[in-house]
């Protein structure tokens, strides 16, 4: 109990002081940004003097087109740098996951798709593969099953085949 608790009024007072200081700092930052913008615009974009003749107007248009081209090139270069940096960040994230050995399994959606549709999606619409699974199944002969039904009770079968008469019957039925 060595720690002393601060009263709620004291907490409220300190909080309001911190908020007022932060508000002042934010206002100063906004003023600095406005001044910086003004300086940049003054350097980059000098005030436009309206031309009096057609040639001066055409020259001004050429200058503007040239500046637009330069800005487009810079924008394209910056986009490429950002894309390259994003790709590097993704690669590094993957390397970190590999080193950690922990992989987050992505949540997979259940998709109801037939085998034909799956092959069509994988191989493209040019290849038509038909997955008739029933056509690939082996046909079972029903005659074998009927013979098993006729055999019936094994005791009766043994009695019939007992002795020479039984052996004679076996040869006669096979022939």
Key features of this structure:
175 residues; mainly alpha; 7 helices; 0% strand; elongated
Structural class: mainly alpha
Terminal CA distance reads 109 Å
Number of helices: 7
Q: What is the radius of gyration computed over CA atoms, rounded to a whole number of angstroms?
A: 45 Å
**What percentage of the residues does DSSP assign to strands (E)?**
under 5%
Q: Secondary-structure element sequence?
A: HHHHHHH
Poorly predicted runs: none
**Overall mean pLDDT:** 79
Shape: elongated
Q: What is the count of β-strands?
A: 0
Biggest sheet, in brief? none
What proportion of the residues is helical, as a percent range? over 70%
Describe, in plain words, how this protein is organized in 3D.
The protein is an all-alpha fold and 175 residues long. Helices cover 73% and strands 0% of the residues. It has helices at residues 8-44, 54-100, 115-123, 133-136, 142-151, 154-161, 163-174.
Short description:
The chain has 175 residues and is mostly helical.
SSE blueprint and pairings:
Blueprint: H1 8-44, H2 54-100, H3 115-123, H4 133-136, H5 142-151, H6 154-161, H7 163-174
């Amino acid at each position: 109990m060595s720690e002393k608790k601060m009263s709620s009024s004291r907490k409220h007072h300190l909080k309001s002081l911190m908020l007022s200081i932060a508000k002042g700092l934010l206002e100063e930052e906004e003023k600095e940004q406005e001044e910086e913008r003004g300086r940049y615009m003054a350097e980059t974009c000098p005030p436009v003097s309206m031309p009096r003749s057609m040639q001066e107007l055409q020259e001004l248009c050429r200058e503007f087109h040239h500046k637009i081209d330069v800005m487009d090139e810079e924008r394209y270069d910056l986009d490429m740098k950002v894309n390259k940096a994003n790709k590097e960040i993704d690669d590094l994230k993957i390397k970190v996951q590999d080193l950690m050995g922990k992989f987050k399994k992505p949540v997979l959606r259940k998709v109801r798709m037939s085998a034909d549709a799956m092959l069509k999606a994988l191989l493209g619409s040019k290849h038509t593969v038909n997955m008739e699974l029933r056509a690939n199944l082996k046909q079972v002969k029903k005659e074998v099953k009927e013979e098993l039904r006729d055999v019936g009770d094994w005791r009766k079968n043994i009695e019939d085949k007992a002795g020479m008469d039984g052996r004679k019957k076996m040869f006669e039925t096979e022939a």
